[in-house]
Amino acid sequence: MAACFFSSYSASAEPLSPEPWTLQRSIERGIAIAPELKSAQAGIRAGEGELERAGEWPNPSVSLRVDNNIRQQQLRNGYTVDQMTVSQPIPLWRLKHQQKVAEQGILAARADVIQTRLNIETRVARLFLSLQLDHEKLTLAEQRLKFTHKRISSLRKPTDASGIGRYVAPLDRSRLQLLHAAADLDTAEARNNYQESLEMFRTYLALPSDAPVTLTDMRPAATPAALPQLEKQIDSNTVLLRRLHHRVLQAEAGVDLEHARRFDDPVLTFIREKNVNVNNQTFSFNGVLLSVSLPLWDRNNGNIERARAEVMRAESQFDVAKRELMGSLRQSHIQLQHMLTQAGHFKQAVLQPARSLLQATERNYDIGASTSLAMIDAYNTYFTARNRYLDILFRSHQKSIDLNQMLGRSLIATGDTGVQS
C-alpha cells in the first residue's frame, strides 16, 4: 500500500510540460496515476496464485502408532512404536480441470485490466471534452462582451469612424446597454463553468492547483467506419464480451471439475509395522494400502447441477451483453453520423452566413444604414448559432468516445475523437 502511495505521489510530483493539453496527453497522465489499474492488476496476481495452487498435489500425511502390545507379548513393561504409515492422496482426475478453471480466470482478469484502462480513458476523455467545451464557450462569451463593449463605447463618441455624426435614440441606447449587461452576466457564468471543469480536470489528473492548462481548439469528430464493418469487430475486439466469454469457459471447466470430484483422490499408503513371532522375537514387515472411494450415494450431483447453472448464467450474461452492445453500437453510430452531417450542414448553412450577416450589419450600422434592432438581431443570430455549433461538436465527440469503448479500442491509439492537436 505504501508503494502504491509513493508511486502515485511521484507521478503527480513530476514536472509538467508547458505544452498544450491534448486528449492523448490527458489520457496518458490519467493512466499513469490511476489507482484503479493497480486494483485490476492485483486480480491477475490473485489468479496466478490460484493457478499455482490448482496444480499442486495434496500434502502427504504420516501416522505413528504407539502401544504396549509387543512389550506385553514379551512379558515386559513399556511402549513401542509398532506401526508407521505414510499416506499420499493422488489427484488423478481433478488437477487439469482445476488448472483450466484458474487459467480462464486469469484471462478474464487480464480482460478486466484492459476494460479498466478503457474506463479510465473514457472518464478522462469526458473530462477533457467538458473542459474544452467550457473553454470554447468562455472564449465565445468574451467575444460577445467585447462586441457589446465596442458598441457601448461608440455611443460616447460624437461621431463614428467615418466622421459622420449620427443620433442614437435613448431606446437604442437602452437596448445596447441591456445587451452589454446580459453579455457580462453570460461571461461570468461561462467563467464559473470553466473554473469548475478546470478544477475537476486538475483533481482527477492530480495536477497542482496553479498548473497552467492550455487547450487546443475543438474540431469535428472523425467519421466512423461503416456499421457492418464495426459489427464484425464486436466479437473479436470488444473487451467486455471477451471477459464474459472467458467466464463462460471458466464455468464450463467448473462443470468438468465437479464431475471429476465425484471420486475422491485415491490414497496410497505405505505401511511399516512391527510384531512378535512365536519365538518372542520382534520382526518388521511392510505393506501398501490403496484406498478408493465408491460414489454409491454421494455422487456430487448437487455441485454438478450448481456448476451447470453457473454456465447457463454466464452464457445468459454474455448473450444479454452482446445484444445490448449491438443495439448501443447501432444507435451511437446512427447518432454520430447524424451529428457529423448536422455539424457540416449547420456550419455551411447557418454559422458562416450568420457571421457574414453580423459583419455586414455592423458595417451598415456604423455608417447609419442599419438600425440597432437589425444589429442586435444579427448579433443574437450569430452567437446563438456559434453556441449551438459547439454543442453539436461536443455531442459528436461523446458518441465517438462511446463507439471506441464499445469496440474495445484505445482512444490514444486511434485518435478517433478528433480533439487532439
Structure write-up:
By secondary structure, the protein is of the alpha+beta class. 67% of the residues lie in helices and 9% in strands. The longest helix is centred in the last third of the chain and has 66 residues. It is elongated, with a radius of gyration of 38 Å. The relative contact order is 0.14.
The fold-level CATH name is: Outer membrane efflux proteins (OEP)
Name the shape in a single word. elongated
SSE arrangement, N to C: HHHEHEHHHHEEHHH
- Class in CATH? Mainly Alpha
Low-confidence segments, ≥5 residues, pLDDT <50?
A: 1-13, 414-421
| Proper CATH architecture | Up-down Bundle
> How many separate helices?
11
Short structural summary:
About 65% of the residues lie in helices and about 10% in strands.
Layout of secondary structure:
Elements: H1 2-13, H2 23-33, H3 35-54, E1 61-67, H4 69-73, E2 80-89, H5 95-155, H6 170-204, H7 227-237, H8 239-260, E3 267-276, E4 282-291, H9 301-366, H10 372-406, H11 411-414
Antiparallel strand pairs: 1-2, 2-3, 3-4
Task: Name a few traits of the molecule.
single chain; disordered N terminus; alpha+beta; 11 helices; 421 residues; Outer membrane efflux proteins (OEP); elongated; 9% strand
